[in-house]
């Protein structure tokens, strides 16, 4: 049987239709840009320098800069505040541009006067200048005094602290 041009075109058309209906097209997964880090750092230090000197220091093991935030593992942040030098450490942190910092897992917030808070989550709002445990439990130490509770809010400007479900052991020898 000879294959003429009409039969060849009909066979080609038939094979094309079979391919269109029965074969899956090649798919390419599209990755959104906001899910990819733009910059990555390892074992780094970052300084916030003002005319008065160094206001803050951030150290970390690894960091990834995404479109909306900076993710840092093993962060260590020190900054000047009206109450003295404040230090924060955690397993991980998320820095949201000009909004705040969220620290997670084994968070320690301490001041140079010996005051210290342990929790699993804390958020610091840049503009309002307050810390919040966002409903998580915390333990605070000051001298021999120990305070436990949840949903703590610490206002940096005034130094006032509010919390819920407080249990405390207060040492009367602490000077304020």
Account of the 3D structure:
The structure is a single chain. The chain is mainly beta and 176 residues long. It contains one helix and twelve strands, in the order αββββββββββββ. It has one domain (33-169): Lipopolysaccharide (LPS) transport protein A like domain (lipopolysaccharide transport protein A fold, Sandwich), CATH 2.60.450.10. The longest helix is centred in the first third of the chain and has 18 residues, at 5-22. The mean pLDDT is 82.
N- and C-termini, Cα separation: 106 Å
CATH structural class: Mainly Beta
Q: Quote the beta fraction.
A: over 45%
Estimate the mean pLDDT confidence. Answer: 82
Order of helices and strands: HEEEEEEEEEEEE
CATH-level-4 superfamily name: Lipopolysaccharide (LPS) transport protein A like domain
CATH topology: lipopolysaccharide transport protein A fold
Number of helical elements: 1
Overall structural domain count: 1
CATH architecture: Sandwich
Rg on CA atoms, Å: 29 Å
Low-confidence stretches: none
Percentage of residues assigned to helices: 10-25%
- Biggest sheet, in brief? 12 strands, antiparallel
Strand-pairing-aware structural class = mainly beta
The number of distinct β-strands equals 12
The geometry reads as elongated
Quick description:
Helices cover 10% and strands 56% of the residues. It is mainly beta and 176 residues long.
Primary descriptors:
176 residues, lipopolysaccharide transport protein A fold, 12-stranded antiparallel beta sheet, 12 strands, 10% helix
């Amino acid at each position: 049987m000879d294959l003429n041009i009409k039969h060849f075109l009909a066979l080609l058309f038939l094979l094309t239709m079979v391919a269109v209906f029965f074969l899956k097209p090649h798919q390419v997964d599209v990755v959104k840009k906001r899910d990819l880090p733009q910059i990555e750092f390892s074992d780094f230090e970052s300084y916030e320098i003002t005319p008065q000197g160094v206001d803050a220091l951030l150290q970390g093991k690894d960091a990834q800069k995404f479109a909306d935030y900076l993710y840092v593992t093993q962060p260590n942040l020190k900054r000047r505040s009206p109450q003295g030098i404040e230090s924060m450490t955690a397993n991980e942190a998320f820095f949201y541009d000009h909004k705040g910092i969220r620290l997670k897992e084994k968070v320690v917030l301490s001041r140079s006067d010996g005051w210290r808070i342990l929790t699993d989550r804390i958020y610091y709002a840049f503009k309002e200048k307050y810390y919040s445990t966002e409903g998580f439990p915390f333990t605070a130490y000051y001298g021999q005094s120990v305070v436990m509770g949840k949903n703590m809010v610490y206002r940096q400007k005034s130094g006032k602290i509010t919390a819920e479900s407080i249990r405390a052991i207060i040492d009367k020898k602490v000077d304020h």
